[in-house]
Amino acid sequence: MSAYEEIYAIIRQIPRGKVATYGQIAMKANRLGHARLVGYALHRLAPHQNDVPWHRVVNAKGEISYSIFRQGGDYLQRNLLEDEGVLFSPDEKINLKKYQWQPEP
DNA sequence: TTAGTGACGTCCC
DNA sequence: AGGGACGCCACTA
Question: Which DSSP helix (H) or strand (E) runs through A6?
Fold first, then answer.
């Protein structure tokens, strides 16, 4: 089981209507402080891995982080989240206080 | 085997 | 308050 598969497994646990931050996932994957790995794992995520809710992963500020090379991707992610009931602030941010996933112990 | 790369987080002005 | 710089590890060619 590679480190990335661990990360994917954790992201799969994010419930519908909630979001998680990269740092949060890194922490649960026993990779404290390695948020970049989480980001890279998602970058490497193949399109057919539809069981991984990648759109529920945002940065620590509650903003959408997406590859700048994929144009329009941010719009797609926002759309998917709004579909699940996650509302955005006027400045395109998510209220983490309200929507951040709090993993069960 | 070595080097390059990549969806972030945090500290310091 | 806002912006800039650095660090970190896994994976591919």
Answer: helix A3-11
